[in-house]
Amino acid sequence: MSELLVRAATPADSRCIAEVHVQSWREAHTDQVPAALSARLDVELSARRWAVRLRGETPRGAERLGDAWVAEIDGRVVGFSSAGMTRDADRPRTEAELYALYVLAGHYGTGVGTALLHAAIGTGHASLWVLTANSRAIAFYAKHGFTPDGAARDDDRWGAPLRELRLTR
């Protein structure tokens, strides 16, 4: 039986995180976002940005994305999460925000997502933003105590607006 290891990400994980990010984005968001958006995802650019982030710096043209964790099975990165202080002005400044949680589809339902969620934000008060069309993710977060708080936004950084809702716990 393969053992799951969740650990803090290091700059050496940059390429693996980028590969998981691009692959899992495409797996999770098929039919939820324009195909052209998914096609624009670039592993090389993502790897460079993650290397900068994991050195504690902020990449030019991108967000820092807080601290990060990776999930490994048999030495292979199969998921990652990132969290930090909330970026929303209407939330308590001491509250955590889950910035990212991505798991390869082949590892859905295995506990990888739960382990990454707990590594990133524990079990306390937190918030996150999720695509309104991503019913699988919304159900996952609901299982962990998150509910919509009424806030919604359109994220248009990618050229086509993506509708998101905020979940809080």
Account of the protein in words:
Helices cover 31% and strands 31% of the residues. With 169 residues, the chain is α+β, with helices and mostly antiparallel strands. The chain has one domain: Aminopeptidase (3-Layer(aba) Sandwich), CATH 3.40.630. A seven-stranded mixed β-sheet has the order 1-2-3-4-5-7-6. The longest helix has 15 residues, at 14-28. The termini are far apart.
Q: Brief overview, please?
A:
The chain is 31% helix and 31% strand.
> In terms of per-residue confidence, which ranges show pLDDT below 50 for 5 or more consecutive residues?
none
Q: Estimate nothing, just give the exact number of structural domains.
A: 1
Strand % is: 25-35%
Strands in their spatial order, largest beta sheet = 1-2-3-4-5-7-6
CATH class: Alpha Beta
Structural class assignment: alpha+beta
What would the average pLDDT be, to the nearest integer? 90
Compile the SSE list and pairings.
Layout: E1 4-8, H1 14-28, H2 35-40, H3 43-54, E2 67-73, E3 76-85, E4 96-103, H4 112-121, E5 126-131, H5 135-143, E6 147-155, E7 162-168
Parallel strand pairs: 4-5
Antiparallel strand pairs: 1-2, 2-3, 3-4, 5-7, 6-7
Keyword list:
7 strands, 169 residues, seven-stranded mixed sheet, alpha+beta, single chain, globular, Aminopeptidase, 5 helices
